Amino acid sequence: MITERFFAHADGATAVLADEIAERLTAGVAARGAASFVATGGTTPGGLYDALSRRTAPWRRVSVALSDDRWVEPTDPASNERLVRERLLVGAAAAAVLTPLKTAHATPEAACIDREAALAALPRPFDVCLLGMGVDGHVASLVPGAEGLAGGLDTAGLVCAVNAPSAAGRPERLSLTVPALLASRLIVLWFRGEDKLQAYRRALAGGDPAEAPVRALLRQDQTPVWACWAP
Fold first, then answer.
1. Which of 64, 99, 150, 160 is the one with CA 20 to 30 A from 90?
2. Domains of the chain, first to last
3. φ and ψ at 140, to 5 degrees?
4. Residue 187: which H helix or E strand, with range?
5. 53 Cβ partners below 8 Å, 6+ apart?
6. What is the pLDDT of residues 7-18, one digit of tens each?
7. How far apart are CA 198 and CA 206, in angstroms?
8. Distance CA 121, CA 170 (A)
9. How many other C-beta atoms can be found within 10 angstroms of the C-beta atom of residue 11?
10. What global pTM score does this model have?
């Protein structure tokens, strides 16, 4: 259920994807009275968030969740919550309601039950789930070799605590699980650069999802996936 959408330029890609995500959120509100969007972190989605924040949509009826976050304060530069608040939830889009992953709990493990309940209360399936991909094949904070990865791949829960020393930034994280990500009407996998294109092709060829967790999304027939790439 993969549709490959390869663009010549990143600016063109973000404009097109922002239009289409806004249209899907608008359609979700029209059909069901509410819509939901999963936002991700990293260096790639900022431009898309800038564009999406300028699109017309019934933002007051849109719930925003995070694919994952580091266990840092929302003011920390490494916080995905901070990225989303500063780049997406501005202007008219500030009316959307964000459900953070970071809480006052001491550890991600201690927050799991609380965040599970918060996410379960959102409109689901998610209308659009935006994800990036690392050159190691990770998605969200489902990182190869991370402590907690097995639960993220297989658990029926919505969230899992992860310790990923090999990943950038603080290793302690909270992440949506693969089943939670797949409980979406559409997954948009947005990645850039030749190295990530090669990582995508390797993952698509098959193998163990524990070695490249993005495989769990690419090699399934439950949820449509747009694989969107630009140089």
1. 160
2. 1-131+157-172+184-191+226-231 (3.40.50.1360)
3. 50, -135
4. strand 187-192
5. 87, 88, 89, 90, 91, 92, 93
6. 999 999 999 999
7. 13
8. 28
9. 12
10. 0.97
d(CA 8, CA 155): 38
CA angle, 77 as apex, 61 and 118 as ends, to 5°?
35
Residue 25: pLDDT band (50, 70, 90) is: very high
Residue 160: C-alpha distances to residues 81, 92, 155, 172 (Å): 17, 32, 8, 11
Alpha helices (runs of H) in the chain, residue ranges in sequence order: 10-32, 46-53, 80-87, 108-120, 149-154, 178-182, 194-204, 215-218
Report how far apart, in Å, the C-alpha atoms of 117 and of each of 72, 75, 170, 205, 206 are. Answer: 21, 24, 25, 36, 34
For the chain, counts of helices (H) and of strands (E):
8, 10
**Cβ pair 140, 181 in contact under 8 A:** yes
Instruction: Round to whole Å and give the CA distance between 85 and 9.
Output: 26
The answer to whether 95 and 63 are in contact (CB under 8 A) is no
Handedness of CA 137, 24, 103, 73 (dihedral sign): positive
Span between the terminal Cα atoms of the chain, in Å: 23
For the beta carbon of residue 102, count every other beta carbon within 10 angstroms: 22
CA pair distance 75, 82, nearest whole angstrom: 6
User: How far is it, in rounded angstroms, from Cα 160 to Cα 158?
Assistant: 7
Q: Tell me the CB-side half-sphere exposure of residue 139, using CA atoms within 13 A.
A: 34
Beta bridge partners of 163: 147, 172
> Does residue 36 contact residue 67 with C-beta atoms inside 8 Å?
no
